[in-house]
Amino acid sequence: MHRQTIVAALLSAGTALAAPRPQASTTSAAPGATATIKCPIVFDGRVPEDYVADPTKFDTYATNKIFNPDYVKGNDLKWSKILKFPTGDPSRFDAGGYRSLEVTISDKSIFQKQNGFRRAGLQFLQDAADGPGMKGVKTLHFSVKQDATRSLNLTHEFLNVWHEAADYSSNQIQFQTGQLIGKSASDKNNFKVLDRNGKSLYSVAMDNTKWQNFAITLNYEKNQVQIYYSTGNDALKSVAGPTSADLSGGGQFQLGILRKPTGSSDVVNSGYHQKNLNEGQVYGGLFLEDSANNCVSL
Ligand SMILES: *[C@@H]1O[C@H](CO)[C@@H](O)[C@H](O)[C@H]1NC(C)=O
């Protein structure tokens, strides 16, 4: 709390700090994160230092107060083994000592009997199919960074962040990368935000070194979506919308990796993945905020 208050005071002291500044090049404790969250947090997925010191905290309901410890992951894997904690500059909304986390997948990332997928997806602990995450106006924040030692094979289709309808029949919003099955390979290096019908709302090239910061405002009352984006420590800017999108159907958020197979018409249950799979996606600044009265932290 104390550190956040100081950062907030500094930010309100003048506009100089709002200007883009170079990212710190060291991996020391010096925080590179600069942004403050100004709207009420509904779900907080930011990772405090004590979870990094003892990742087994992610494994049980008794100790994991951030994410659902049991879902959605390989049956025989624990989150303490799936998650890695990269050192290096924190993302901009991890000011106050929060840490990045990397979701990884391997040959063992098979959830239930879904042999076609390799997946590891975090769900906010407090999220529920009919909970506050699917009412009113909410903004989901997430920053992503690439790990050169666990790069994604973009010949495959990846689902990275999405809101899945309560009946599992569709995702109201989906943030993806790689070659989408049945679509052109030309944008396989892009992150893409799609609506539930697969219509592209925004697309931007994956950056292999910088943090890429996204925020998606979901207006459940008007069925509209607005997308914000920046890189590094730059403030978010609106890049798409508000645009109409059917957000009905409740459900939950998921953040991580769902890797679809190639060579299959039944992607849930069968298909091809290379062996000795070792891929990861780094996340930072995960939270859902209340955007009533147009409040969005930029
Ligand atoms: C990437 O995926 C494609 C399609 O499954 C596969 O042919 C290729 O071997 C994979 N690349 C690596 C480096 O494993």
Automatic annotation (TrEMBL):
<feature type="domain" description="Glycoside hydrolase 131 catalytic N-terminal">
    <location>
        <begin position="41"/>
        <end position="292"/>
    </location>
</feature>
<dbReference type="InterPro" id="IPR041524">
    <property type="entry name" value="GH131_N"/>
</dbReference>
<dbReference type="Pfam" id="PF18271">
    <property type="entry name" value="GH131_N"/>
</dbReference>
<feature type="signal peptide">
    <location>
        <begin position="1"/>
        <end position="18"/>
    </location>
</feature>
<keyword id="KW-0732">Signal</keyword>
<protein>
    <submittedName>
        <fullName>Glycoside hydrolase family 131 protein</fullName>
    </submittedName>
</protein>
<keyword id="KW-0378">Hydrolase</keyword>
<dbReference type="GO" id="GO:0016787">
    <property type="term" value="F:hydrolase activity"/>
</dbReference>
